[in-house]
């Protein structure tokens, strides 16, 4: 029987596209200081190439390439400060997830397992989920981050449940699905279509970034093996609810 539902935050509860667009625009401003003829379209082409080649870490890798270690570290510090101060303004709740969380909270215990700044917690409270997530495994607070199994074990230990009694809902196979399956949890790979995430487009570069996201994104990278394949997939909040229902059938073997 399923007792606990654990959520990632980025692209599961909250849309990350706006903050990633911000990060790429800030990186571009820094690049222009030494490469004034460099185009934003070229930076996004390099982004897509980096994802095809290496998967995750594309922004930091490009910052290292063009700014050097010191420049990258300074940019991370400055952008992180802004994200801490304006977390909720830089994210939107994904369509339908508010209602889905409320529905699930009536039957299950809910938790978070997320690589996030600690400021995500008051932001989630302000978004209407105050008190709903009983276990909150936030990487900055726990001291480990996905895909390290330690953060999953931390969450399960605090929840007091066995892995097979828990579901992990995540947007990335590498960070969420594969490690959760390895530890014995059920998994749902949630990938909202980019056009349906409610991203706020403020300028031309926002639109260019979203088009780049539609061409390729780390959340679209498929499992490398059957062992890493999710137990279910969903592309909407409704799909999440339907997937969980299939896990919790009374005649389901444990």
Shape: globular
Structural class: alpha/beta
User: Radius of gyration, rounded?
Assistant: 18 Å
pLDDT below 50 for ≥5 consecutive residues: which ranges? none
- Percent range for β-strand residues: 5-15%
C-alpha termini separation: 7 Å
How many β-strands, per DSSP? 8
Helix content: 40-55%
Order of the strands making up the biggest sheet: 5-4-1-6-7-8
- Total helical segments: 10
Order of helices and strands: EEHHHEHEHEHHEHEHEH
Mean pLDDT: 94
Largest sheet: 6 strands, parallel
List keywords for this structure.
254 residues, alpha/beta, 10 helices
Q: Any overview of this molecule?
A:
There is one protein chain. This protein is an alpha/beta fold and 254 residues long. Helix content is 50%, strand content 13%. Strands 5-4-1-6-7-8 form a six-stranded parallel sheet, with helices on both faces. A two-stranded antiparallel sheet has the order 2-3. Helix 5 links the parallel strand 4 (109-114) and strand 5. Helix 1 (17-32) packs across helix 9 (204-215) and helix 4 (97-105) runs parallel beside helix 10. The longest helix has 28 residues, at 58-85. It is globular. The chain starts with a strand and ends in a 7-residue tail after the last helix. The model has no long low-confidence stretch (mean pLDDT 94).
Write the layout of secondary structure elements.
Elements: E1 4-7, E2 14-15, H1 17-32, H2 40-54, H3 58-85, E3 92-93, H4 97-105, E4 109-114, H5 120-129, E5 133-138, H6 139-142, H7 149-159, E6 166-170, H8 173-183, E7 186-190, H9 204-215, E8 232-234, H10 237-247
Parallel strand pairs: 1-4, 1-6, 4-5, 6-7, 7-8
Antiparallel strand pairs: 2-3
Helix pairs in contact: 1-3, 1-9, 2-3, 2-9, 4-10
GO biological process, one term: small molecule metabolic process
Protein name: HAD family hydrolase
Organism: Eiseniibacteriota bacterium
């Amino acid at each position: 029987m399923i007792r606990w539902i654990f959520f990632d935050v980025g692209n599961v509860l909250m849309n990350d596209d706006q903050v990633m667009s911000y990060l790429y625009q800030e990186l571009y401003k820094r690049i222009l200081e030494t490469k004034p003829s460099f185009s934003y379209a070229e930076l996004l082409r390099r982004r897509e190439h980096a994802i095809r080649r290496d998967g995750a870490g594309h922004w930091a890798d490009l910052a290292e390439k063009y700014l050097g270690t010191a420049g990258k570290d300074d940019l991370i510090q400055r952008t992180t400060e802004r994200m801490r101060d304006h977390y909720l303004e830089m994210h939107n709740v994904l369509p339908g997830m508010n209602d889905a969380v409320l529905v699930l909270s009536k039957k299950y215990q809910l938790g978070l397992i997320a690589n996030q700044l600690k400021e995500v917690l008051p932001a989630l409270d302000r978004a209407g989920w105050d008190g709903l997530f009983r276990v909150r495994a936030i990487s900055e607070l726990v001291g480990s981050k996905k895909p390290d199994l330690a953060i999953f074990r931390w969450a399960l230990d605090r929840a007091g449940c066995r892995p097979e009694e828990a579901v992990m809902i995540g947007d990335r196979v590498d960070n969420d699905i594969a490690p959760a399956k390895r530890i014995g949890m059920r998994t749902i790979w949630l990938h909202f279509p980019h056009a349906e995430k409610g991203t706020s487009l403020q300028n031309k570069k926002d639109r260019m970034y979203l088009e780049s996201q539609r061409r390729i994104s780390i959340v679209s990278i498929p499992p490398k093996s059957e062992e890493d394949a999710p137990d279910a997939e969903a592309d909407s909040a409704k799909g999440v609810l339907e997937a969980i229902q299939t896990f919790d059938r009374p005649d389901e073997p444990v």
